[in-house]
Amino acid sequence: MPLYSALYYIVFFALFFLLLWSLERDKYGTVIPLVGLSVLLILFSALRFDVGRDYDVYQGAFDFAYSNHSEHLETPWKVLNEVLGYLHLDFSFWTFIVALLFVPLSLYAYKKQSYHYALAILTFVLVFKLYFESFNMVRQCMAQAVCLYALPFFRKKRYWETLFILLMAFSVHASAIVMFVMLPLFFVRYNRALMMSLLLLSITLFPIVMKAFFTSLIPFISGEMHLPLDLTYIKAMGDTQEGKGTGILYLFNTLIALYFLWRERDLLVRDKALLPYLNTFFFAIIITNTFIFFQVADRFMYYPYFFLPILVSNLYERGNRYDRWVLLAMLLVQTLITTRNILNTEETYHNYRLIIHDKDVPNDFWVQRVQEENRTYWGSPLFTAKEMNSKQM
Q: CA-to-CA distance for 56 and 89, rounded, in angstroms?
């Protein structure tokens, strides 16, 4: 890791833990540290430059409205790109607006549903698939943040509000359609033997069966059959990032899920409101175990998994001391995973750079991109690329 990236991370985590300690310590003056935490998380995401696997994809979609990257964007994202382009604002404003929406949406939902807010925020940052993953899956993480608000409305049987929230999430990213099915299932109290069987099968038999099933589809997809669905991703079926490892993390997460399944009866006696959050964790583990070989399907796991900070904070408050030790062990392992991913030279996190640079150290961001075609969907820029070139001459 370059020295400047190490310094950025040291400053970020130092400020984060200081503000989190202040939030936990001062029960009567939480506004200042809470605002400080929000600003810190927003800026660290908004000011990043070329950090995240999909950074170039979103920048390409922003710069070129008719590119392949832009073609698959949902309407709200196209409108955002269009407005910023019409105002002649660059991509740094896009990352800022996205962070300005995503972080407060997530933190406010966690505040409303968690019993131990500081612990929920700690989980949000230390677990890689939550805050830091939003640098990669920008649109889906935004949809996940919106879906956080659906669960309380569904609990209160306010179904129209729930439908409206889920439709908003679906408009942000099409994968949110899975929440129309999963959300009601979160409130079902399943037979513990059935859930234990599903968890055990997901780590043993399900991956083999599902991989064989999807593999059997490839000859039909590769042939001349005109299927109604776009199954391109099945042709390029690839292992998830965790699936390329030793499998220890899958076993560890499954054991954690089995422990809380064993504790479920007592936990629900203490607090019945824990049921949907426990089920979100069980669902997430089953999905990610089953689709260890298929990265696209595995991404559906992120929707129930995004409720993890609420589950951790609420179990910590309602559980016994053994539950707390298990939760702390899980957070420790997740912290090690986050550290590994940040230091991984195959990822862009290890080379964290700010979008603000010294004038004596130019980089590709400041090099003007000459575009011969109009980048906007409607309207036109003040000057075309040819006009700009003629003015400079």
A: 17
Handedness of CA 105, 111, 112, 115 (dihedral sign): positive
Tokens standing for residue 376: 């906007």
> 113 and 152 in contact (C-beta within 8 Å)?
yes
Contacts of 244 by beta carbon, 8 Å cutoff, 6+ apart: none
At residue 175, what is the residue type? S
**Spacing of C-alpha 170 from chain mean position:** 15
Dist. CA 42–CA 125, nearest whole Å: 12
Q: What DSSP string runs through 375-392? A: --SSS--SS-HHHHHHHH
Q: How far apart are CA 296 and CA 139, in angstroms?
A: 14
Give the pLDDT confidence of 186-223 residue by residue, as tens digits: 999 999 999 999 999 988 898 888 888 877 776 665 55
pTM of the model: 0.83
Is residue 121 within 8 Å of 20, Cβ to Cβ? yes
Nearest to 172 by CA among 137, 198, 215, 200: 137
* Displacement of CA 247 from its chain's centroid (Å): 22
Assess contact for 90 and 369: CB atoms under 8 A. Answer: no
**How far apart (Å, rounded) are the C-alpha atoms in residues 5 and 344?**
13
Distance CA 250, CA 256 (A): 10
pLDDT tens digits, one per residue of 69-81 = 677 788 888 888 8
Distances (CA, A) of 291 to 2, 119, 204, 205, 222: 35, 30, 11, 11, 22
